[in-house]
Amino acid sequence: MTFWKRFATNRGAVIGLVLLAAVIAIALLAPVIYPGGPWKMVQRPFLVPFTTDGLPLGTDTLGRNVAAGLVHGARVSLLVGLVSTVMALLIGVPLGALAGFYGGYVDEGAMRFTEFFQTIPNFALAIVLVAILQPTLGSITLAIAIVSWPPVARLVRAEVMSLKRREFVDAAHLAGLSNIRILVSEVLPNAVSPIIVMASLMVATAILLESSLSFLGLGDPNIMSWGYMIGAARTVIRSAWWLSFFPGLAILLTVLALNLIGEGLNDAFNPHLTKKGRT
Amino acid sequence: MSDPILSIDALTIDLPAGADRPHAVEDVSFDLSKGEILCVVGESGSGKSMTANALMGLLPDGVTVGRGRAVFDGTDVLPLSEVRKQALRGARIGMIFQEPMTALNPLMRIGDQIAEVFAAHKLHSKSERRARALALVKEVGLPDPEKIIRAYPFQLSGGQRQRAMIAMALALEPEILIADEPTTALDVTTQAQILRLILALREKHGMAVMFITHDFGVVAEIADRVIVMRHGRIVEAGLAQQVLETPQHSYTRALLDAIPTGRVPDLQVITAAPALEIRNLNKIYRTGGGVFRPAREVRAVNDVTLTIAKGEVLGLVGESGSGKSTLGRAVVRLVTPDSGQVLVGGVDLAALDAKALRQQRHRVQMVFQDPYASLNPRHRILRSLSDGPIAKGVPKRQAHTRARELLDIVGLGADAATRFPHEFSGGQRQRIGIARALAMDPELIIADEAVSALDVSIQAQVLALLADLRRKMGLSILFITHDLRVAAQVCDRIAVMQYGRLVEVGPVREVFHAPQQPYTRELLAAVPGAGWAVAPEAVSA
């Protein structure tokens, strides 16, 4: 069975993929759907959803279009999620690979360094970093990447440690290949599947982290994001529920989609671990 | 022998849709009588284990019994409910498995595991369970029973674990014992002991044994009757002697022919120039230890001196833990020896630094044991074969042409180059492994248990290929194996290792017919079916 066929047998994963594709499409088309941007005041404040033409989700405390906010917020969430995950992989994969492959003092050093980051609670560290660096889109992304790479390093280290004992790695040593070459072309390609699965889940975590930061008012003040919308609406949650409900729903669906995809990828990469009875 | 206590009638086991064949087992019928040892023989994938698993109700998910009956004591056991099967398992049908390490719970003491069998069937009081466990441990011949029942599985050797498994299977005095390749993972001497134990227990308890194996040597040793299976069907059944001496079916004959016979080849004329000289090689493994405790030392290779002439095949034989693999890996410098020299073509590989070593690696190449782990699953065959030569400085195009030639030489055809390892069978992968070693134009090839993981018929093909290549190319080979019969077939000289030391070195004929050392004699005596396998030679001589 091909990879895609295995992936497609997991219905949840397919639903997740469709959801994510929809979110990505909305994010890409945001300037076309709402060319005016999310900040423009279009009507009087606190318009209830589904009552006014052209404002399907109502307006917020300052009379801005909630739907426009959501659509433009999708761009920020996805961008932060993807970029921070890529950055985390760029830190975690090389560090973990070197630690696992060389062992000994390299491993000790790299793992103590990793533990240094793991001992500080993720969210607290992210808050501190954003506060020090000034809240801009770039610094938020960086902060999320810095708090989320340690698990990647751990995972890659474990994978590399078990792969390097395989006989094909011995064979590569005997062929006279250099250590770096063996690590990059023999070992790492075989560790790709768990990394991909983890990355898909990390994007989801990063989106949640960004939303949480924005909710606390630590987001980039010039950028509309889902977390910011919920944060701004929390004072009026009893009188205008839709202001926090719709961005919350958007976060929920996106994160759920990514988790479903992650699980589907995991099943598809490791067909032996899935329940055989399902076929 | 009386009426059959188990009678299997037209058993068919269905595989899930999409498997390589519709039935794991098709239309299999046989009887098992009280006190009888029935050997079920076949190569991997022949369905021999599935038959046993169906009896025990241990079929994997998706695999179901299609048709047929298995009548045990008047009732068909196949359609029984899970609860009734549980009552049957252990109590009336016992089972032992191939891997005693994975079949025992690593976190439970041996005594508790045996006592648990009684507990599962709600028998006896707690103290009585313990007493019975102790008696069983004594019965299966484990040394120091008082200590053993308090030991954890990791503290026992492979043979001891298998004895503990047998004790568990015997706990409730089952009428049938199913043994699924119980000695395959063991050394020859341990294997011989376990086989003797099973024979003795059969004698004492009069139970019927269904013994699943791929090894005709084992069959010759213990079987009363034999069933030969292939692709899920019985191709031949009969009394052991009948099947072994006058096989009717061509497949049985092919299987018997494929067995390395232990027939000793004539002495080859060997040049004096050495391909490999090992001088006083030592390797000590240290484990544990700390500030207050001395580390545990294992002398894996202890002062070994050995020479292999150009064009010679030297067999390195020993049981697991004898240090034969460490010696092989030290020669290719996958393991760095503590002291001593490894001279190949005048270069001491043991003394080189990392960079110089990389340039000299091509002199010695290795064919690995596990055909599934020794090829990178993400690289096409062409890349696996040409990466080494390219790193050595051979132009890319030339390396690719050579790789295709070699694939042709090892009998796979040049078009195998563009495929991935998972498209090949175990035997084919081992051919690729040989081609990869040859691609480096080595002065010496180390074959580390290179045929041990293969079925006998495939094993014979790969051995024939090695012999052929050796004749054509004048290869020097260090052939590491635990199987004396295989060693006898392909080697010129044999070196026997025990506890890291070389015990005996000599031409095959001398080592086999006039062994000097008691350990060598013990090893030779332990080969299963020894008397039967030597017989054809007596006729031809």
Secondary structure topology:
The complex is a heterodimer of chains A (279) and B (541).
Chain A: H1 3-9, H2 11-33, H3 66-102, H4 104-118, H5 122-133, H6 137-148, H7 150-163, H8 167-174, H9 179-187, H10 192-215, H11 226-233, H12 242-269
Chain B: E1 4-14, E2 23-33, E3 37-41, H1 48-56, E4 64-72, E5 75-76, H2 82-88, E6 93-96, H3 100-103, H4 110-120, H5 126-139, H6 145-148, H7 158-170, E7 176-180, H8 188-205, E8 208-213, H9 216-222, E9 225-230, E10 233-239, H10 240-245, H11 250-258, E11 274-287, E12 296-309, E13 313-317, H12 324-331, E14 339-344, E15 347-348, H13 354-360, E16 364-367, H14 381-392, H15 396-409, H16 426-439, E17 444-448, H17 456-473, E18 477-481, H18 484-490, E19 493-498, E20 501-507, H19 508-513, H20 518-526, H21 530-540
Parallel strand pairs in B: 3-8, 3-9, 6-7, 7-8, 13-18, 13-19, 16-17, 17-18
Antiparallel strand pairs in B: 1-2, 1-4, 4-5, 9-10, 11-12, 11-14, 14-15, 19-20
Helix pairs in contact in B: 4-5, 5-7, 7-8, 8-20, 11-17, 14-15, 14-16, 15-16, 16-17
